[in-house]
Design goal:
six-stranded mixed sheet, 3 domains, 19% strand, 518 residues, seven-stranded mixed sheet, Deoxyribonuclease I, Chain A, alpha+beta, 16 helices
Length: 518
């Protein structure tokens, strides 16, 4: 009891002196001489915390390859030997990967979002700052609040989720790119129980000629690791027998950095390796003043004993939406291939230059022939043809860029730039734990939230303005925002038993269905 009291007292003293040091720095310009008489006035905060037994997490504590090197020495896997991993801001991420997107066989992003209902707009801003359209987005801790409202949150994605049974906190969600053939695979489902609460979701995805298994997991903290491992091992073994490449992402609340000295974590890690799964997130994902833990994981298995020559690139992204950093992984081809731009929609760009061109085209039209037409229908058709020709020649159809196709309409270039700067300030604060850096970040965060709120309000005010939108358009806009209509899903039949014959070829399955129903 006395130990707890002493620890709490030291924590209060530490916080009080931290605030005092910041206040003295801020008031130094007023020459407040009496503050100089206080104890520890001229002592750096780091020295003060060391004197009282507080450990400070520094940049070197989490940006290092200690965990990866330990794993390499114990487990001689090719994946660990060639894994590319680092921390990225949105800017550095875009500089490195935006030009290589066409070489990516499968891409996955994971984030512990701590309530999709609360952080959905910030999440969309963050995605808009990344020049990458992920194939799969896994969200842990989506929470149950208004979850059905977010089916249409990300255009071009289908939304699936698994929610906790006895609480609103927890849950896992998954956004799948609609261009991919996919179906829910409940056969890999891990059973939820009181002694091991867990939400999990499994989907089989086909991209091109390659088929993958993707899993999303949220394991609640405070429960025994061995109870979870017993259930998880059954699923891992089942996936291993399928011999399909697999990615599993989520918040497991198991610090893999402890695998050398924590017995349960060691057994858990050994089980992953035995079942041909390798963690690709190898640096801490949750960083506080006093700890840096690796509890958000992404595992990869190639599904076969033969090497598929995939280049594995993974990393953590600096983002302040929650106290967990987002993680990503790319399965890349070792050779370059050309991107298919024909899948992007055609749009007309109403730039100032094109508008001037349209005005000039209309002014140059000779209307004398129109005045000589007596039939009103023919006159209207002539007028419409001339205006349409001028419009089509001035605003030509062009392919929408991949970057702009993912933009939210109210997220301007200025907001993107401000968001990147905010994440850089957040990175600096977590790296230094300086009170001054914390002050700069939190003040900038307040301004950023105000600016984005104003831009968002103006956008939705226009979207729901009854003077410029029809009733049909208003309902369409409302559905885009609130996901009132159910998203259409696609069912993929992998195999079929017909007349005691097991069919797996697509052409054979189609013929069997036609023979049965027609």
């Amino acid at each position: 009891m006395w130990c707890i009291f002493v620890v709490l007292l030291l924590s209060v003293i530490n916080k009080a002196f931290s605030d005092l040091f910041f206040f003295t720095n801020k008031m130094a310009q007023d020459n407040v001489s009496w503050l100089r008489q206080l104890p520890y006035y001229s002592v750096p905060i780091s020295e003060f915390q060391n004197d009282f037994g507080f450990s400070i997490i520094t940049k070197a504590d989490f940006i290092n390859n200690d965990f990866l090197n330990e794993v390499k020495n114990l487990y001689h896997s090719d994946l660990f030997q060639h894994l590319n991993f680092d921390y990225f801001t949105p800017d550095t991420f875009n500089d490195k990967f935006s030009k290589n997107e066409c070489n990516i066989k499968l891409s996955l992003l994971h984030m512990n979002i701590r309530s999709l209902n609360k952080n959905n707009e910030e999440f969309c801003q963050f995605l808009n700052s990344l020049n990458c359209e992920f194939d799969v987005i896994v969200l842990s801790e989506v929470w149950s609040y208004n979850i059905t409202m977010f089916s249409n949150l990300l255009p071009g994605y289908d939304f699936y989720y698994d929610l906790p049974l006895s609480s609103d906190v927890g849950g896992v969600g998954m956004y799948i790119n609609t261009n991919l053939t996919h179906c829910v695979a409940n056969k890999y489902q891990i059973v939820n129980s009181a002694d091991c609460p867990i939400e999990n979701l499994w989907i089989e995805i086909t991209k091109g000629t390659k088929k993958y298994i993707v899993g999303g997991i949220y394991r609640h903290p405070g429960y025994k690791v061995d109870s979870f491992l017993t259930k998880f091992e059954c699923t891992l073994t089942q996936i291993l027998n399928c011999k399909l490449p697999c990615l599993i992402a989520g918040d497991f609340n198991i610090d893999l950095k402890k695998f050398q000295y924590h017995q349960d974590t060691k057994e858990y890690f050994d089980s992953l390796v035995v079942n041909n799964f390798s963690p690709v997130i190898v640096m801490p994902t949750r960083i506080t003043d006093t700890s840096a833990t690796l509890i958000d994981h992404i595992y990869y298995s190639d599904g076969t004993k033969c090497r598929d020559n995939s280049i594995i690139t993974a990393g953590n992204l600096w983002c302040d939406i929650s106290d967990h950093l987002p993680n990503f992984v790319f399965l890349q081809d070792s050779f370059k291939k050309k991107h298919d731009f024909t899948t992007l929609p055609l749009v007309r760009l109403h730039t100032s230059h094109n508008i001037e061109k349209f005005v000039k085209s209309v002014s140059d039209i000779n209307w004398s022939e129109l005045y000589n037409i007596e039939n009103p229908n023919e006159a209207y058709n002539f007028f419409n043809m001339k205006i349409s020709n001028a419009y089509d020649s001035s605003f030509k159809l062009v392919r929408l860029s991949r970057k702009r196709s993912r933009d939210k309409m109210w997220v301007t270039a200025g907001i993107k730039k401000s968001s990147n700067h905010k994440n850089k300030l957040y990175k600096k604060w977590l790296s230094t734990h300086s009170i001054r850096d914390e002050y700069k970040y939190k003040n900038y965060l307040k301004i950023f939230k105000t600016v984005t709120q104003v831009a968002q309000t103006a956008f939705y005010k226009e979207k729901f303005d009854t003077r410029i939108n029809t009733t049909k358009q208003l309902w369409s806009n409302l559905n885009q925002v609130c996901s009132l209509c159910k998203v259409k899903t696609h069912t993929n039949i992998d195999s079929l038993i017909y007349n005691n014959n097991h069919l797996t070829e697509t052409s054979d399955i189609c013929s069997a269905l036609n023979n049965y129903f027609l």
